[in-house]
Amino acid sequence: MKANRVIGTILGILLIVFAVGAYLSDEPSSKTDTGRIAILGAFLFGLFTVGGNLGSSKAKPQVKLPETKPVVETKNCPSCSKPVSADFTVCPYCATPLKPKCPSCGKEVSSDFKLCPYCGTDLKK
Residue 62 domain-assigned? Predict the structure, then answer.
């Protein structure tokens, strides 16, 4: 494969040199519209050949995506108002229980409940 690229690049360069030489020559056919179109075509084909062969040997750049942090659901501590993870049972800042348990039945209840929804015990004593 590398030999094909080298040969293609050399042929592309030769086409470019030919096209520039033909354009700069005093040949009458290079001064006509048809001659100039042919020269331009040879020049562009040479450019694409050289560019394609040189570009194909390069490794494609790797796109690095920014690192994303996992989404953690948070809530504010009812005591100190600092943000804490929703699955914490105790506030790490002020040690307030975030998921207190009912003193009667032992089930987990919300800190803003006045009564235990499971047994009816008064939680705000």
Answer: no
CA distances from 87 to 33, 65, 108, 113 (A): 78, 29, 12, 18
Domain identity same for 82 and 40 = no
Count of domains forming the chain: 2
From residue 25, give the alpha-carbon distance in Å to each of 16, 20, 37. Answer: 14, 9, 15
Tokens read off for 3? 């030999």
Q: What's the pTM? A: 0.39
Residue type, 13: I
- Whole domain around residue 32: which residue ranges? 2-56
Encoding tokens for residue 55? Answer: 């570009």
Measured CA to CA, the distance from residue 57 to residue 22 in angstroms comes to 30
Backbone angles phi, psi at 30, to 5 degrees: -80, -10
Place of tokens 């803003």: 112
pLDDT tens digits, one per residue of 104-118: 998 988 877 889 999
63 located within any domain = no
Give the pLDDT confidence of 22-58 residue by residue, as tens digits. 888 888 888 888 888 888 888 888 888 887 766 555 5
